[in-house]
Amino acid sequence: MKSVKQIFLEIFRPNDYKWILLLFSILLLPNIAGLFMLSDLEDSLFKKVAYLLFSVLILFVPALFLKLRYYFLLEGLFVLLAPLEIAHMYLNKMPITEGFISAIIHTNPGEAFEMLYSLKGICIIVGFIWFCYFLITFTRIKNDFLFTSKAKIIIAVMFIFFNLGLYGIMYQMAYKQGVINRFEYANDHFNKKYKKTYPADLLTVSYSLYSNQKKEKALQQELQHFSFGASKEFQTDKELYVVVIGESARYGNFSINGYERPTSPELKKNKEILSYKDVYATANLTEIVLPLILTRATPPNADLGYKEKAFTDAFAEAGFSTAWIANQSSDSPFISRIAADSDYSFFSMTDFDAATNFDGNLLPHLDTVLNKQNPRQLIVIHTLGSHFRYNFRYPKAFKYFTPAMEGTMSYSVLSPSNKELLVNTYDNSIRYTDHILSSIINRVREQQTTSAVIYISDHAENLYDDEKELVFHGGSSSSVYEKHIPLFLWTSEKYKQVYPQKQITLESNTGRSLSSSNFFHTILDLADIHYPGEELTASFASPLFREDSVRYLLMPDKRVIHFSKNDRND
Predict the structure, then answer these.
(1) Residues 381, 257: one domain?
(2) CA 192/CA 139 separation, integer angstroms
(3) What is the pTM for the complete model shown?
(4) Please, where are the H alpha helices in 251-406?
(5) 128 and 252 fall within a common domain
(6) Does 232 reside within a domain?
(7) pLDDT in tens, 490-525
(8) How would you write 478-512 as a 3-class SS string?
(9) Which residues span the domain enclosing 161?
């Protein structure tokens, strides 16, 4: 039987390993910190072990090809940037994101220096660690390969099989959820594992940011000469319109719409709210449906979303200042282009994996824009709403229905047997949406001007509603539960006085068949903005409005499904 020393020598080449171990410990500091800070790893020993193994394998890969001194110098770049990763995990319980890197790039140097000076104690400690790392690399490390040829093969095989197993798990998840593009789903979720593991996350997120900014610039260039020719004859000194885009909200889970549970007590008390009863999403994935809400694109003509500008641009042409405030990331070139052209924009530096990224965090940014007192304002607020994990969408104070999901409970609870748990948690997120939307309306009401707040969800959600046992959205089989969405409208007293005919029409159309495709035309008509070729027959604020006899749904695989407006069970 081989001794431990013999096994060690079969794996590692001779070197001063106490120093090598110290350098590896420094390299692993962000990953070790992640074991205690990342919300994804809470209460799961298996996940922590898998995360640490994955981290070590990622660190070992460059050492298969580089001699030690070159290896540690290369990895030293990530040692320099490790404090950013640790700080982000400490603040947000998740790894670094595109939004965070973008914020760093655009940070004023003076502000950055002021912040570093306020943390001078920590900076001294970090500087000392950097100094020791590079001193040891140059003076104590023998410049030879770390592993023997046999060990290199073993580690390479382990790395390959670990990745194949991880990819297989992602594909199995796609199959379990009935996803159409299973390979695309598996690729996306597989890549997310690298985006959550340092230092791979820094590379993948940085490349993703660069790629998306490049696409955004290309889209900007393509649309630079496009114009709606929009205009408005102003009848009041000040007008304000707020568009709130929800996430995964179901029409039937709001008590204002007849749901037996008290999920929208604040909206229900507000007698000025109009709730539209028969509104269907035109796609069941956010990235697909947003162009269908914001532009004139429709499911049969989806490419139009990237050939024309959005209603925000039409408002700007008509003399409005515009703002984009989002709790969802800016990694869509379509959205980042719109935000870049707005007078004010804010994106959360985290995403839906952050346990404290609540929509209430957007309200101070709304206050900032309102305090500018611009005479004519359009504000778009893109929320996280009821995106899974549902328990991450609301503060503990809104845990009203129990039992509810706790901590990092996630895909492991996806079973019809856990329907009560899922629905309770989901309904808590709806109750929080009710509070946020009411808070927005109250802020706009205080402006005492001609104003309106309109809310529409991007799509809805399946919650094991029937014998099909579907969950989430975006699967290969669409259902009424992921298509039937809430649409709420509030208008101020001054709006009713200035636009009485529009108000009458808006009230009379609450029971008409509508879809996401009506939104572009309606929001412009609502603000009395006109442009050549406008389609008032598609605006439910117009007496000329006509319902479509056929509904369309753009699927994730780009198929267009059409069904009768009376067919609620497709």
Answers:
(1) yes
(2) 38
(3) 0.84
(4) 265-269, 286-294, 311-317, 333-340, 363-370
(5) no
(6) no
(7) 999 999 999 999 999 999 999 999 999 999 999 999
(8) CCHHHHEECEEEEECHHHHHHCHHHHHHHHHCCCC
(9) 4-216
